[in-house]
Amino acid sequence: MDKLLDEFLINLNSDKGRSKNTLESYGRDIRQFFDYVKNNNLSILKINKTNIIAYLIYLQKSGKATSSISRSLASLRSFYLFLFNNKYIDKNPTLNLESPRIEKKLPRILTIKEVELLLKQPLITDPKGSRDQCMLELLYATGIRVSELVAMDVNDVNLNLGFIKCNGTGTKDRVIPIGTMALKALTQYIQNYRPYLLREGKSEQALFVNFHGSRLTRQGFWKIIKYYTKKAKIDIDITPHTLRHCFAAHLLENGADLKSVQEMLGHSDISTTQVYAQITKNKIKEVYKKSHPRA
């Protein structure tokens, strides 16, 4: 079974150029299915549609979120299509299986004042404070994902022209302009403080590094944003993705067009971006109800 999974992931990476995070996600989903198959004395190559449905029900009873179940089914669809196309099986058991409907929840958005409060928390008098402020400013200024932030190298930044190159999901690269505040923070960090974080004699291309002089991880950034949220006394569960949501929503609130925001976020489908337009509409309704004398 492991050999089949390895072949599938290699094929997925070489033919479709999926990101490392996507490949890891597919791998986790399919290994979880392998465990289910083994525990129920089934065979991976003899699975039928009823077995797949039973597995989805099992995930539901185990307390898995609808989004997780839907993702697992997507992973299995891709896996069994690979097996079918490569003649490991005669029939694809995932054909015509519908994904469970996912209730779309609007992301929680900070107000502009709350964002400003969060961005003011790092003390830029030392390397750590400068690095942390730079990361927060850059996330809010560009809307890039945290995985994209920690994957950035020094060469992805153009201080003279004021833009960054972002290596997006799969093969999607995009160039994003950065504002005055983010550019100032980047310049100060790169020129004055990043050298202090690097270990002497160590060659590291990563833009953001930890105290060991190595590339900062997503988990490392998670701890950072949690720390500054608590320090700012913001009573909202802020995640590393929150500033990306704020970037999109605040742009639309201030008149940016949906297509431009879609391109900056790197969304392949504009329907993904439209959720932020819904947030803006809801805010307008709230303002109307609070302000209009006959609302």
From TrEMBL:
<dbReference type="InterPro" id="IPR004107">
    <property type="entry name" value="Integrase_SAM-like_N"/>
</dbReference>
<dbReference type="GO" id="GO:0007059">
    <property type="term" value="P:chromosome segregation"/>
</dbReference>
<comment type="subunit">
    <text>Forms a cyclic heterotetrameric complex composed of two molecules of XerC and two molecules of XerD.</text>
</comment>
<dbReference type="InterPro" id="IPR023009">
    <property type="entry name" value="Tyrosine_recombinase_XerC/XerD"/>
</dbReference>
<feature type="active site">
    <location>
        <position position="267"/>
    </location>
</feature>
<dbReference type="GO" id="GO:0009037">
    <property type="term" value="F:tyrosine-based site-specific recombinase activity"/>
</dbReference>
<dbReference type="InterPro" id="IPR011010">
    <property type="entry name" value="DNA_brk_join_enz"/>
</dbReference>
<dbReference type="InterPro" id="IPR044068">
    <property type="entry name" value="CB"/>
</dbReference>
<feature type="domain" description="Tyr recombinase">
    <location>
        <begin position="105"/>
        <end position="289"/>
    </location>
</feature>
<feature type="active site" description="O-(3'-phospho-DNA)-tyrosine intermediate">
    <location>
        <position position="276"/>
    </location>
</feature>
<dbReference type="GO" id="GO:0003677">
    <property type="term" value="F:DNA binding"/>
</dbReference>
<feature type="active site">
    <location>
        <position position="244"/>
    </location>
</feature>
<dbReference type="Pfam" id="PF00589">
    <property type="entry name" value="Phage_integrase"/>
</dbReference>
<dbReference type="GO" id="GO:0006313">
    <property type="term" value="P:DNA transposition"/>
</dbReference>
<dbReference type="InterPro" id="IPR011932">
    <property type="entry name" value="Recomb_XerD"/>
</dbReference>
<keyword id="KW-0238">DNA-binding</keyword>
<feature type="domain" description="Core-binding (CB)">
    <location>
        <begin position="1"/>
        <end position="84"/>
    </location>
</feature>
<protein>
    <recommendedName>
        <fullName>Tyrosine recombinase XerC</fullName>
    </recommendedName>
</protein>
<dbReference type="InterPro" id="IPR010998">
    <property type="entry name" value="Integrase_recombinase_N"/>
</dbReference>
<keyword id="KW-0131">Cell cycle</keyword>
<dbReference type="InterPro" id="IPR050090">
    <property type="entry name" value="Tyrosine_recombinase_XerCD"/>
</dbReference>
<comment type="function">
    <text>Site-specific tyrosine recombinase, which acts by catalyzing the cutting and rejoining of the recombining DNA molecules. The XerC-XerD complex is essential to convert dimers of the bacterial chromosome into monomers to permit their segregation at cell division. It also contributes to the segregational stability of plasmids.</text>
</comment>
<feature type="active site">
    <location>
        <position position="241"/>
    </location>
</feature>
<dbReference type="InterPro" id="IPR002104">
    <property type="entry name" value="Integrase_catalytic"/>
</dbReference>
<keyword id="KW-0132">Cell division</keyword>
<dbReference type="Pfam" id="PF02899">
    <property type="entry name" value="Phage_int_SAM_1"/>
</dbReference>
<comment type="similarity">
    <text>Belongs to the 'phage' integrase family. XerC subfamily.</text>
</comment>
<dbReference type="GO" id="GO:0051301">
    <property type="term" value="P:cell division"/>
</dbReference>
<dbReference type="GO" id="GO:0005737">
    <property type="term" value="C:cytoplasm"/>
</dbReference>
<comment type="similarity">
    <text>Belongs to the 'phage' integrase family. XerD subfamily.</text>
</comment>
<keyword id="KW-0159">Chromosome partition</keyword>
<feature type="active site">
    <location>
        <position position="145"/>
    </location>
</feature>
<keyword id="KW-0963">Cytoplasm</keyword>
<keyword id="KW-0233">DNA recombination</keyword>
<keyword id="KW-0229">DNA integration</keyword>
<dbReference type="InterPro" id="IPR013762">
    <property type="entry name" value="Integrase-like_cat_sf"/>
</dbReference>
